[in-house]
Design goal:
This protein is an all-alpha fold. The protein contains one helix and no strands. The relative contact order is 0.12.
Length: 47
């Protein structure tokens, strides 16, 4: 797919961080018709 050259180089301000909880993952999985594994991340992921 070609890139519209007028969009090249556009920048946007950073967005705030969002905490992802196990409940949010479960809800997302249910919305997709799947089930979450219930596996927990051993530590929070920070950028």
């Amino acid at each position: 797919m070609p890139v519209d050259q007028s969009l090249v180089g556009r920048e946007f301000p950073p967005t705030p961080a969002v905490e992802v909880t196990a409940d949010a993952v479960d809800a997302f999985a249910r919305a997709l018709g799947a089930s979450s594994t219930g596996a927990a991340c051993p530590r929070p992921i920070r950028s």
